[in-house]
Design brief:
This protein is an alpha+beta fold. 21% of the residues lie in helices and 35% in strands. The chain is built from 3 helices and 8 strands.
Length: 162
């Protein structure tokens, strides 16, 4: 995964210390109800699409940008599905990060097929809900919450039930 310039500048100041960053996640469903996933180049595993919000960028704009960068398709955010805190991550280079992720259900603007559009993905494709490959637990949770079609976005707060 490429390190954005603003994160690289922060890392030059703080080293490998824990850095909490804003992120977005796209739950893209096509007209057949299939969900878009990418096979990540860094882990080889399947995941929901997403990434880091740039300085001054609104999360909804970031999710549109990330989907286009990773899968070459244009989407419209239709619904906020949840806000999440990821587990802490220690990258191979020693960087320590955690992300506050805003998840959006998104709709493709046309029927352009997805394609690998950057070096962060090995493959991108739509999957029927009954044939989803293994996903990281936090990605599975986001997908499950989106499929619940809640009237309000999911969030967790101290003292509230899971």
């Amino acid at each position: 995964m490429a390190i954005p310039d603003h994160v690289r500048a922060l890392r030059a100041r703080i080293g490998h210390d824990l850095l909490v960053l804003p992120g977005v996640c796209a739950l893209v469903f096509n007209d057949r109800g299939e969900v878009l996933l990418n096979r990540r180049a860094d882990s080889g595993g399947w995941a929901l699409l997403g990434g880091i919000v740039d300085p001054g960028e609104h999360p909804a704009d970031a999710v549109v940008r990330e989907v286009h960068e990773e899968a070459g398709i244009r989407v419209v955010p239709a619904r906020l599905t949840g806000v999440y805190l990821t587990p802490e991550i220690r990258y191979p280079n020693g960087d320590h990060s955690q992300y506050v992720v805003t998840a959006f259900e998104c709709v493709p603007v046309d029927d352009t097929p997805p394609r690998v559009n950057d070096d962060e993905s090995l493959d991108v494709d739509y999957f029927p809900l009954g044939a989803i490959p293994d996903l990281p637990p936090d990605h599975r949770e986001r997908l499950n919450h989106a499929l619940e079609n809640r009237t309000a976005a999911y969030f967790r707060a101290a003292g509230l039930p899971l």
